[in-house]
């Protein structure tokens, strides 16, 4: 977290410097880390009821096996074993994580809504995108 926070502080400084040099340039900063943590702390506000489990299961196991078998062997060695159960949940709109790495469309939508409408995570706010949104 400290690395992410340090990165965001430096990025904000660079954005401020660039905007002073080029005042006609519109740069919007979105703090994805803080927005993500906000949603994790308040999942019910965004209709999430599962913040830990991935909706789609089996994908990471398949990836791990594919990488472990990536030794330049035969093409049949790269085929997935039949005992990995790859399934998706029936309600992905209630999950934050899709497969343990990627977010669900619902989570991306919640993050985008914060980007477009919430000054706690976006600066400057309001900005040139603000008139385009329906609050």
UniProtKB/TrEMBL annotation:
Gene3D superfamilies named among the record's database cross-references: SGNH hydrolase (3.40.50.1110)
Coiled-coil stretches: none
GO molecular function, one term: hydrolase activity, acting on ester bonds
InterPro entries with a match to the protein in the record: GDSL, SGNH_hydro_sf
Family: Belongs to the 'GDSL' lipolytic enzyme family.
Protein name: GDSL esterase/lipase
